[in-house]
């Protein structure tokens, strides 16, 4: 017996190690299936691993950040003036758009109150820096430099100004692990902006986010915007997720497709993220201040623009901007009831239609194209315009 | 002239390193594995803990030590991924055992042998990983085999550069 153990000790040790780990896996699966999450032992291992890996990671990250800061703030200041001017113009435009959207938002809030439904707005966010990753292709988890002591908790949404990133999975003292939306075990409720098709977002083997189990629908087109649906109790409604890149048939189920997305946030190159630490059914003080500034600075201009848009929609147009010149209502010969041109005055005076100066903004009646509706971006994150569908 | 027995020759060929190397190199491998993908994005086609497991298993030529080192590094990696702990552990335990077992049989000083072994063992590690995920855990996980192939190539290239560097630290009698 002793010689057997001595002879096969290598193999026996291997078997013991493998069996121990398989049993450990079985126990973890049982824990997870019973909805208890990680057990104490597993959590302890994660804590130790994090405690050993995080300090050197922080040192590496801070060293890299320091070098980058010196470069960006002392050596690489070309084009800053031009960029500043561009940003000022953008800010100006956004202020105008915000002021224009304010009335709609207020009306939406009143309607929501009537429906006894309250939209959650992003009330408080905490900026954090990404300091490390899981180091595995199969796991899209990354570490941020903020933890429990900074007010981070499990299942908080993590976003960037471009779009959603993931949710907090594990929280430690000064760090936290975030599960990205392109991980295969992640899940988020999303909705396609134009078709209002809902689905579950998760990652695929290539590390790309996809909406799974969607019934095949011809209306889903490349470039369609995808937003958070808000039903998962993690991400507030209306945050950008990405755009449709391609639609592929579900290999396991006929009649279903997987919609692969181009994520709005740059998931492969994340440096800084925002953790949503609080959502409330009202705007944050900073947002309220920003709205007030926009209203004060651009309110009158936005109101004027809005009035002109309203008039343009209500008044009949003789010129359709979407039709070529030969098919305009005035020139359409196929129309059995053509629009009659006003007779030409023999003795024109100041009351002759052609000489009347049209009111500002009422251009369609004077035979010009209806003013184009301004290209407004979606409202700020967590501040989506109401879209009529309840969660 | 003294003639060495097979066991004595094996004992003679076992490489020994300072304790600091045993402690520092595996930790550094795990730290860099977690940090470098942040810098390199999706082009981080390597698995440094696996390369280190193969290196020490080949150098020590002890399957028990190889298995234990592989298991510990794998569990360490699992702890950072958020997945169940033991998936990488099982894969790397097997890799450490196989590397040490083969290391007894072949001349591990040869660079070509090291290159081929690292490549093959990387693929063995990937296959074991997906076996555990698919069949032991029953998880539906897509597999990107091209990425695994690139990773095996990346590991081989790193091994080609890293092994001679680490060899310099070995204790000479």
Question: End-to-end distance of chain A, in Å?
Answer: 68 Å
Q: What is the name of the CATH topology of chain B? A: Arp2/3 complex 21 kDa subunit ARPC3
CATH architect. name of chain B: Orthogonal Bundle
H and E order of chain B: HHHHHHH
Task: Count up the helices of chain B.
Answer: 7
Unreliable parts of chain B:
none
Taking all residues together, what is the mean pLDDT of chain B?
87
Arithmetic mean of pLDDT of chain A: 78
Proportion of helical residues of chain A: 25-40%
**Beta-strand content estimate of chain A:** 15-25%
- Which class of chain B in CATH terms? Mainly Alpha
Give a quick account of the main beta sheet of chain A: strands, pairing sense, barrel closure.
6 strands, antiparallel, barrel
Helix-strand makeup class of chain B: mainly alpha
From the alpha carbons, calculate the radius of gyration of chain A and give it in angstroms. 29 Å
CATH superfamily of the domain at 127-278 in chain A: Rod shape-determining protein MreC, domain 1
Query: Given the C-alpha coordinates, what overall shape of chain A results?
Result: elongated
What is the total number of structural domains of chain B?
A: 1
Structure at a glance:
Helix content of chain A is 34%, strand content 21%.
What this model shows, in words?
Helices cover 34% and strands 21% of the residues of chain A. Chain A has 391 residues and is α+β, with helices and mostly antiparallel strands. Residues 361-391 of chain A have low confidence and may be disordered. Chain A has five helices and twelve strands. Chain A has helices at residues 2-7, 9-33, 40-75, 80-114, 285-314, and strands at residues 121-133, 141-144, 157-159, 164-171, 176-180, 188-192, 198-203, 209-215, 225-228, 240-249, 256-263, 272-280. Among the domains of chain A are: 1-37; 127-278, Thrombin, subunit H, CATH 2.40.10. The longest helix of chain A is centred in the N-terminal third of the chain and has 36 residues, at 40-75. Chain B has one domain (15-167): Arp2/3 complex 21 kDa subunit ARPC3 (Orthogonal Bundle), CATH 1.10.1760. Helices cover 75% and strands 0% of the residues of chain B. In chain B, helix 2 runs antiparallel to helix 3. The mean pLDDT of chain B is 87.
